[in-house]
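Milestone 3.1: sequence recovery, worked example.
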């Protein structure tokens, strides 16, 4: 099946046809692409996100609207962003984030979730969801950390792994901010210890974006939380903090590392 137009122009047209909402190409965020029927055909579907302010009247107008062309059976459903995770099947999420061939797409998915997790109500929803975002994050973090340690990896592969690490850590950090339920889940599945391990890898000491994401995650996960602090210390986080401060960090990362170190030093295990 061929569709007239490519990429952004097709997405803009389809949004108008199927929802009745008009957007511009610049409104779209590229989330990568997917092959819905691998092995059967080579159809590639582009994925986009769009954030747009509309009035309540506009929302009511498109709610339950029959969209698309005459031969397409499409009904528009309105779903709160914080509920979108809850209305997506667990299997689809598992296929997306656990498929080792979709590194960049997985990273972009976690980036979107990390941005949404800045909202407290969204953090609560995602923590309570039965598909367990925390467990998925822990699995991806450990797998990606192991991949990064493979010295035989190509330069482009390592760059993708670093990008995925950054977004996974951002998502873990934002999800666990003032959220003890998420912290408990990350502890249970080994995610806090994995964060501690990431702090010690060479890239976390030399890549500014990864340094910020890793130490920011350590701060959010363990802030005023004894068990998480203990798990980080057991993973060698204290040494990693001192090491990165000794080698120098960008000025915008320095306060994060210092606050995280101050939090860890409040616990008895730090003295040992």
């Amino acid at each position: 099946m061929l569709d007239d137009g490519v990429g952004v122009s097709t997405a803009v047209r389809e949004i108008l046809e199927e929802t009745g909402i008009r957007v511009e190409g610049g409104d779209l965020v590229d989330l990568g692409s997917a092959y819905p029927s691998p092995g059967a055909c080579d159809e590639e579907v582009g994925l986009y996100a769009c954030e747009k302010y509309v009035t309540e009247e506009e929302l009511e107008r498109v709610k339950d609207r029959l969209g698309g062309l005459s031969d397409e059976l499409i009904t528009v459903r309105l779903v709160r962003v914080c509920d979108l995770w809850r209305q997506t099947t667990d299997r689809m999420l598992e296929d997306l984030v656990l498929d080792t061939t979709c590194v960049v797409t997985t990273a972009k998915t976690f980036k979107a979730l990390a941005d949404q997790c800045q909202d407290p109500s969204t953090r609560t929803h995602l923590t309570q969801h039965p598909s367990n975002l925390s467990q998925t994050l822990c699995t991806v973090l450990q797998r990606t950390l192991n991949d990064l340690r493979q010295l035989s990896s190509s330069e482009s592969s390592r760059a993708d792994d670093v990008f995925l690490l950054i977004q996974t850590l951002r998502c873990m950090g934002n999800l666990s901010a003032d959220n003890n339920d998420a912290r408990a889940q990350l502890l249970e599945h080994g995610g806090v210890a994995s964060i501690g391990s990431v702090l010690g890898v060479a890239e976390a000491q030399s890549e500014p974006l990864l340094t910020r994401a890793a130490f920011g995650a350590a701060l959010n996960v363990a802030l005023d939380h004894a068990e998480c602090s203990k798990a980080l210390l057991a993973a060698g986080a204290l040494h990693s903090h001192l090491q990165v401060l000794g080698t120098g960090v960008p000025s915008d990362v320095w306060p994060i590392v210092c606050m995280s170190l101050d939090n860890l030093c409040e616990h008895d295990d730090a003295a040992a």
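The chain has a mean pLDDT of 83. The longest strand covers residues 28-34.
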